[in-house]
Amino acid sequence: MAAKRGTKTSMKNMEKELLCPVCQEMYKQPLVLPCTHNVCQACAREVLGQQGYIGHGGDPSSEPTSPASTPSTRSPRLSRRTLPKPDRLDRLLKSGFGTYPGRKRGALHPQTILFPCPACQGDVELGERGLSGLFRNLTLERVVERYRQSVSVGGAILCQLCKPPPLEATKGCTECRATFCNECFKLFHPWGTQKAQHEPTLPTLSFRPKGLMCPDHKEEVTHYCKTCQRLVCQLCRVRRTHSGHKITPVLSAYQALKDKLTKSLAYILGNQDTVQTQICELEETIRHTEVSGQQAKEEVSQLVRGLGAVLEEKRASLLQAIEECQQERLSRLSAQIHEHQSLLDGSGLVGYAQEVLKETDQPCFVQAAKQLHNRIARATEALQTFRPAASSSFRHCQLDVGREMKLLTELSFLRVPEAPVIDTQRTFAYDQIFLCWRLPPHSPPAWHYTVEFRRTDVPAQPGPTRWQRREEVRGTSALLENPDTGSVYVLRVRGCNKAGYGEYSEDVHLHTPPAPDTTQTVGTTAVLRTLPWRRYHPLLS
């Protein structure tokens, strides 16, 4: 009785493993994507239609199409989804997607169909054949059927084509793999069509599917290509596509994968105490994280409040950063607990693995167990190398506001820059005048400078002294090009900021060299190039 109760609990817990990521309902005719995730055949066709791919949603060749899987009848939620607008489809067709009149099927550059996998959030290449090149996950279908029977024992079998609420099914169709009421059976098997020849059967939910067939050659798969990680038939082996690949009989792949999955599952089931201990540790870590996060927020709030209303926005941003960090850690820890809970006996993943191990169809088992073993292997590795996914400490959220407090203490009205100091060691005059300066150590900053200069060896003009100016000089140096030769220049500089202009620096007098002798141009030029640059201090020439 206990074993039966445990099996029933396990079947109920595995429901999340049997939900399509697109429609969030039980899988119906699931397809295995190249990324090893599953999706309903009808959902896959609808997704490709929304992406603008026309004519690539064909059914896999291993099984006939079921009218119960059409987007308009399969689920009310799917029927409410809007298809792409006609103008968008027209643009997609013109840009090369899908098929349209005038396009050759045997083009030199076949179209690569990308399918947005809802599970891994990545684009998966389906190849030129689209959904027709994918395998049906028959093992997953059987697990779904067993689950349905376990949770609805003795319940009536309902029509899969009726609009809600569905009527009780009265007929079944092996070819269509669906159950019908009388009206729906007549509707989907119209007189005078090929479907009218389908023989009705008693309604059932356990239509036994055929074995896996190669989607390329319609042959039963007999081997497994380890290089491509794909089931292949006899004809696939001799094709150039698998030339040089490591191919093994499906029996060998079945036995090897089943042994690995059995050992991994046995390890998890044999360490249930460890799983529960780690879950308890994670729950305790979550509690400490909540307490530490609250303490960190209180400390940050107290420090930021001391800075006044001006820093209120900063306080909010710091709290938001801690809150995001805390939520991220809690999310990671909760996800880790969720992963560990899936390893407990009777959980969804373990129960699903146990059900897959009951599969006797070797190709189907290999197909379904490949993805499952990867998940079990990752769970085993996480169990062996366990440590909490996030730390409960928030020490990195501490604030040091000593510098900010000092700045607030010294806060006062802005003052103009002090008079700059001319750097006589770096100031010189030659064929150019280079002026360099610096601000006193405790001077307010200057946004820019104004440099003024004039000649002193020219006759004075009536009126105020006229200076030449260079405005808004950035930095602490200026270069005056093409000064008059043999002349004395006086220069000064002052800084400016938001408070206004500061005082002028002391005047500095620079004497430019005389003009070279034009009768000995070559020799003079050589002499000038060898002479060092002379620095002229006030009236020292």
Q: What portion of the residues fall into strands of 2 or more residues?
A: 5-15%
Main beta sheet: 5 strands, antiparallel
Counting H and I runs of at least 4 residues, what is the number of helices?
Answer: 15
* Helix content percent band: 25-40%
* Strand segment count: 20
Structural class label: alpha+beta
Task: Tell me, briefly, the overall form.
Answer: elongated
Mean pLDDT: 77
Distance between the termini: 115 Å
How would you describe this structure to a colleague?
By secondary structure, the chain is α+β, with helices and mostly antiparallel strands. Among the domains are: 13-53 and 111-153, 2-Layer Sandwich (Herpes Virus-1); 253-385, no CATH class; 421-512, Immunoglobulins (Immunoglobulin-like), CATH 2.60.40.10. Helices cover 37% and strands 15% of the residues. It contains 15 helices and 20 strands. The protein has helices spanning 2-13, 41-51, 71-74, 76-79, 86-94, 138-151, 182-188, 234-238, 250-270, 272-305, 312-341, 348-357, 362-384, 402-409, 521-530; strands at 30-32, 38-40, 113-116, 123-127, 135-136, 171-173, 178-180, 200-201, 223-225, 230-232, 247-249, 421-422, 428-429, 432-438, 448-455, 468-473, 477-481, 488-497, 500-501, 508-511. Strands 15, 16, 18, 19 and 20 form a five-stranded antiparallel beta sheet that branches. Strand 13 (428-429) and strand 14 (432-438) form a beta hairpin. Helix 9 (250-270) packs parallel to helix 13 and helix 12 packs antiparallel against helix 13. The longest helix is centred in the middle third of the chain and has 34 residues, at 272-305. The protein is elongated and about 120 Å long. It starts with a helix and ends in an 11-residue tail after the last helix. Residues 59-65, 68-86, 88-108 and 520-541 have low confidence and may be disordered.
